[in-house]
Structure formats: C-alpha cells, structure tokens
Amino acid sequence: MDWTLEVIELPVTDIDRARDFYRDGLGFAVDIDDEVMPGARVVQLTPPGSGCSIALTDGLPHPTGTPRPGAYHGLQLCVTDIGAAHAELAGRGVEVSEPQRYAPDDGATFMYFTDPDGNGWAVQEYRRRETEPLHRLLADRAAARTGDAAGSTGDTVG
Which pLDDT belongs to residue 156? Predict the structure, then answer.
C-alpha cells in the first residue's frame, strides 16, 4: 500500500491574506477556495509541479490539536535553478534570503522565507531534478514494483 503525502494543513491567522501570499507571491495554484461544510472554509494551493498541496483552513475541527499560526518551520520546496527561483520570488515581492551554498554538492544550496504568519520555508536547489524529475522516478519505482509482483527481476529506482 502506498502512503502519499498530498496535503499539509498550514495554520494562519488570516486565510485571505495567506491565500494571496501563496497565490500571488509564490505562484501556487488555488485548487479549492470553498466552504466545505457550514462554517468551515478550505483554501487548498499547490506549488507548480508539486504532488503535495497546502491547505489553509478556518472553522475545521482539529481532533489531534489546534495548530498555531507561525509554528511550522522546515517546510521545503525544491527547484532546479535557485538563482531563477530567487529572482522570481523577489520580483513577486517576497522577502527571501540570498541563496546560501553549504557545500559544492547538488542539493546543498538553500534560501529561506517566511509567510505573513511566520511559518518558515526553505527552498533547495536540486539540479538533478532537471533531468530526473521526481514524478518520473516515482513512476519508474511503481512500474518496477508491479513488475516484481509479477515475477520480474527489474531494479527499483532509488
């Protein structure tokens, strides 16, 4: 059985302000902006190319506890060109740090920003995704598993 991470609820104080930041500042697509039950609104947004969305909510019950706006840190986006991503975010008015290269390896360059509530994000440059997109690697892995289940000896992609 696959367990896919597809939505992360992000706590915010002003759902409209947060929606505008993620849509206009970051270029996320608005998938849902609706009252899903009486008194409960969900705005779901997805980064370009991502299989995981964020959900901004108001009025939904939280049986495991109420998340605090600004308490999330370490959310991470990946891009193939951090210079271009920095220029895009800065051009959209997002206050983003300069890219920081921690090592010469691919995947070791990051920049950071926070949303209007203080939820902290990192953007990682992973140039390898230009030629090896994650969706292709996952499809190859699924095909290999299916082949293995049918008695194939295909290698999995890691």
Answer: 44
